[in-house]
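Lab manual, section 2.4: Encoding a predicted structure.

Procedure: take the sequence of the chain (110 residues), apply the prediction step described in section 2.3, and record the output as structure tokens. A sample record is shown.
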Amino acid sequence: MIRKISRTLVVAVAACLLAFSSLGHARAVDESPSALAMTADAVILRPALLATTIVGTAVYLVSLPFSALGGNAGEAGEVLVVGPAKATFVRCLGCTRSGRKPETVEQSSD
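Recorded output:
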């Protein structure tokens, strides 16, 4: 019985991993977000990402002694705190990638 459940769980996880890996390659990154994307980002996503940053910080602080003993405290901090914080505070409104939106430089014709 346990073998059947574990086999089913492994197949379900493998199917999800295969399905979600193709989504990242199928969609192009849009750096010109619409007004709806900006509104949804400001009203729904940013508060959720702020909550994720707070929860990630709490989890990092609780797991810090164990990750320090394991030698991966920096990596844990990067994943649990810095990544969500960058997505919350550094990403442009409505953009899909973290980081500042590149400024366009206009060429003047002399």
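Check your result against the sample. Helices lie at 2-26, 35-70, 73-89.
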